[in-house]
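Notes continue from the previous slide.

Worked example: a multi-chain complex. Inputs as given:
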Amino acid sequence: MNGRPLTDARISEALRAHVPQTAPAGLRERIVDAAETTTQQRALPLFLGALTEADPVARRRSMLIAAALLLAVAVASAAAVGAWRLLQRDPIDELSLEPPADVPAFVLSSYEWLPQLPPLALTWHDSDSAKGRIYVDRSGAVRFDRFTSAEAAEPASYRILSPDHRISGMAPVESEPVWVEQGHEAIGEDPRVFLRTVLSADEGPGCEMERDSSEVGNDTVAAGWRYVGLENVAGRPTHHVACAGDLWIDIETRLILRTQGPAVDDAGQPIPVEFTEVTEIAFGEQPTALFEPPEGPARISMEEYTAYICVRDLPNEMAPGISDCPSTGEAEATPPPEPSPTPMPTAPPDPSDCAVPSSDPSEPIGPLAWTPESLKGDWPAPVRLEPAGGGSVQPMPLTYLDPTGDNGSTAFPCVDIRWVTADTSEVHVRLVSKPPPEVDPTEQWIAYGVVTDEDGDGVPDWRYGIDNMPADAVEKGPPRRGWRTNLHTGQTEAGPGLRDPLFLNGGGFQSGLPTDSADWEPDATFRFGGAIETTQGSQGWGFELDMPFYTWASVIVNGRVVATDYAPDSGWLVATRGVRLGGTFLLEDPFLNLSMTVPEGWTTRSANELSRVTCGDLGRHVGPDESYRADCARVAFDVIGDPLEWVDPCENTIEPPLESRFDDFVTCVASRGREGNGYGGAIIASENVTVDGYRGKHFEYSPDTRSVGCPYDCGDVWILDVDGVLLMIGSLPTGDLDGDVPKKAVKAEIRQMVESIHFEH
Amino acid sequence: MDAVTAATNSVTSADDALVRRARTGDAAAFGVLLDSRIDRCYRLAWSILANDADAADATQDALVTAWRQLPRLRDPAVFDSWLNRIVANAALMARRHRVRLREVSVRPTGPAAESPQPEPRQDLHARTQMDEMVDNDAIGRAFDRLRPQDRMILVLHHVEERPVAEIARSLGIPVGTAKWRLHAARGALEKAMEAEA
């Protein structure tokens, strides 16, 4: 071991090298052979079960009843099915895996069906190690991304073919990305048919892939294609067909997913096989922003772009492989355009809890409106005013609860702070709601941040922030800019807010906006230190946030600050490395809210988990040099939405099915023992309990039936019935504590926490 | 609605269609489903059994069981998590069976008992790769020391890159518990590495 921390990437890399990648040869064939000779199990309708009745009288009666029922069902079904089939044909029924009866027609359909291609995104690679991505919009627009290498994550250029028959896209000009627009119609067909520019095969006599509309009655077109077999490409069933080259055509959409050239030349000599293959494909609506001009980059016309590449003999990124350059001597020496960022407002934001006030055109714009110059500037609103002599400083509790509704505007709950959690490396700011996604900063300019008092003199020194403006001209995805400002000099450093981490003159922080994922809680997150993997091993970055700080949220509309919140509203918080003060833990589940008193030494690990991270001499502290947190005990809260789903491993063991949620769920958990109680051990004790007036069951379980030292090595599970909502609370001993005394103390702490639970209504 | 429109408007994935067809007894459709899953299933079984031959047998048992019980799968959309569960159960059953066999074999009841039970054969290909990377070797050896349940969840998350929600469905546990088990498995891996060092 070289002492590097055990990161996710490191585990993944090692396990991929350790675990065999492929199943043994022949296993698949053995399984399919076995399947073909194995009868599938089909459940009989219940009433037919009586036909196996041993009593002949009962059996005869059952048969009569069954016959009558079957007749009635058959008549009703025939009528219903007939009516239904008139109304709708199930597209799944159309998907036949049988070889196509007419192979040439099947091949020709790969072109003819393209204009009906549904929205999708696909990635392709070819035998020259080129890589591309294609997006198809429901409108028919198609975006072609090109990458400089197979490893590149971001496209070097892209072009968009629109339903209005125009071509536009992003291409490098003097190493800067520039938006290129065609001022007139450039294509005469549905943009989707141009997928053929990437996915097609060698054509020749008899190996055509499309009909020539000028020919009439040509029955020999595509006649040379022959069927090879049913194969899987990119997880999709395809028919493999061959002629001069080979094609793998998606059975459902007829999209070509793989093409392969011939293995020999016309003289019969072996040649390198060329191929293009779709490696990933996903059907579904694509983000509209993919097909829209981005904010920021300079714009030039297609004619200007053509003149630029022709003078320098550069490849045409807008029409790969096609040169519109005039012959030598005719090229116009048009000077390259000067990129000049001209941000454009995006579409109005989607409705959200944060309202978008209607702008009054007659109202003058205030002095804080967003402009392109804001890209490198500090948040324009003033920092919080501090009292003379500095405000109070309080140690960081488990959760700092901030009053809500105190930001100056009820229209902006997305800049209303509910609570703050922090240690010396991270700060989480929980908001009342998320901001609208991708809102234009000229409409609503929203920011979150942390202000620090580095020398503890009560005067703010640095303002860290993240907002919804584009970080630079080439940023992809939702705009977000991270920055820090020296409040004494006014100097600001800014960059993409999602860079990991954002290095700023040796310091640094990493941040995230609440809209980064639909599944995330409305948290703004700031990380001030940690470890990253480099080729030289693990390196620490950033600094410890062991100084006074406060958090803030603010929004500017029409050039004026309309809502601001601070947490705390006055005074400062300070976290100390290794010290974990207790406090209030809030579980904010859609079905259940609770608060609970937590003793010192514990911290929140996630929205539904608590972790004891100070564990005496054996506990390891969290610091910037550790990317992995150790702990000695954990408590997790799970609201059981659907007991039937949760107890699925009990299927075939619970008869009758669950009816009374709590009682049957408890019975099931108790019966599942070592493998099935959700926590991996044998239940060794149980008792009825009451928590905050609600009934419950407490189980004590051994993490391993071989374990010794119970009860202090044992975990606990509580199942509570809160007005019909089932809450499971489980503790996991991680074994980082030696000796019964600390284990007993931790178990007692967990029990006290559970007993302190108060459910919010 | 013509065939073209019907097919292209379909929002149902091709996998769903394949599951539906396999459910009606179409072995070819089942074969296509296997193409993109058999390696994954094998790795999952291997993570529990740590033995090539046993993993292959368990994978075969599991997938034939899946074929037999496919008509009882109500929702094709949960096919993958359902399949993972069957594979995991088959591998765990195989492991229990193997343990019992070894317990019997050590009894001095006959000449066969004199032959020592062979150690599980390791994957030579992976060993060769591991020799090239000391770090990976240490993690790999530590991985072998873990409980099967820990190995399984680490493989699902770190090798198969399955989302935690899908892992939770596969194991029949809440998402929070899956996260928790993943954390515990990771902690166990770190401890095993310390023990190896």
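Summary box: The CA atoms of residues 296 and 343 of chain A lie 4 Å apart. The mean pLDDT of chain A is 73.
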